[in-house]
Write a structure and sequence with these properties.
Layout (H helix, E strand, L loop, with lengths): L2 E2 L2 H18 L5 E7 L3 H17 L2 E7 L5 H13 L5 E4 L9 H7 L11 H8 L8 H12 L8 E5 L6 H10 L3 E5 L6 H5 L4 E4 L17 E4 L3 E2 L6 E2 L4 H4 L5 E2 L6 H22 L1
Parallel strand pairs: 1-11, 2-3, 2-4, 5-6, 5-7, 7-8, 8-11
Antiparallel strand pairs: 9-10
């Protein structure tokens, strides 16, 4: 039976370390969050981020813009936040209303304040294994593997999903750690052929309980990034059939309580890191 990789517990431990770091090094991290429109899920995410900031000692400012905000108005605000020396991190909450170009908005955020890791400069630095702010969910996945002493170097890591937010940065992080990486996605034929090769399997496909026990080999380490709501209920499940797969896996993340808590915690780590860099410049 698999050992559980407890994201909730690890997240708590890292937040304590970050809080101590902020106090000990007399840092003044400050996050500016920009939300355009009235997306309810985004408001919940922001509330959770605000609480996490408060717990660690990170100042928090919200900029709530109306749905009909123009591209120029959004870019003007981002440029203003770039120049504001008190602000050490800028987060643009997605999704944006359809008339706004999120790609241009991310490109406008100062790479030194890009705590979400979405500016192309940070993405490029990650590609060449240089110091960069990295997208928070993939960073959380690597932290979990390291915390539980899962060897990455020389192992076959199979990543299901190639999104810009999770799949692609994670592929690069695993390559930078010397894993042999197999990339699969929605167009992959005979997925099972690849998942059975995995020493480390990371699923981010958004299909409830899609990965079953027969699709994995004995002793695999399974990281389930999926968060899927069961139709007609409030129950959340992952991409992995936990009960079935945990019989064969050596380590597995639960959903909820696995990767989820780590995402916001890694954001906090990026904000604290940005404050350190800002202080040293």
């Amino acid at each position: 039976m698999a050992e559980i990789i407890d994201g909730k517990m690890l997240s708590k431990k890292i937040r304590e370390q970050l809080k101590n770091e902020v106090e000990k090094e007399n840092l003044h991290p400050k996050l500016a969050v920009v939300l355009v429109g009235n997306d309810e899920a985004s408001k919940i995410y922001i509330k959770n981020k605000s609480k996490a900031c408060n717990d660690i000692g990170i100042a928090f400012e919200e900029y709530l813009l109306p749905e009909d905000t123009s591209m120029d108005e959004l870019l003007d605000l981002i440029k203003k936040l770039n120049k504001n020396e008190e602000i050490t991190g800028i987060l643009l909450q997605s999704p944006l209303p359809k008339h706004l170009d999120i790609k241009i908005a991310f490109e406008t955020i100062d790479p030194k304040k890009d705590v979400d890791g979405f500016n192309p400069i940070n993405i490029g630095r990650l590609e060449i294994n240089d110091k960069a702010f990295v997208s928070c969910t993939p960073m959380g996945v690597i932290k979990m593997l390291e915390e539980y002493n899962v060897e990455i170097e020389g192992k076959t890591a199979v990543v299901i999903g190639r999104s810009n937010i999770v799949g692609k940065p994670l592929i690069q992080l695993l390559l930078n750690k010397n894993a042999t990486v197999i990339v699969t996605h929605s167009k992959t034929k005979d997925l099972e052929k690849y998942t059975k090769q995995a020493d480390i399997l990371v699923s981010a496909i958004g299909k409830p309980k899609y990965i079953t026990g027969k699709m994995v080999k004995e002793g695999v380490v399974v990281i389930d990034v999926g968060i899927n709501r069961v139709e007609g209920s409030k129950v959340i499940v992952g991409d992995v059939d936990y009960k079935d797969v945990s019989k064969k896996a050596s380590y597995i993340t639960p959903v909820p309580g696995g990767v989820g808590p780590m995402t916001i915690t890694m954001l906090m780590a990026n904000i604290v890191e940005a404050a350190k860099q800002s202080k040293n410049n």
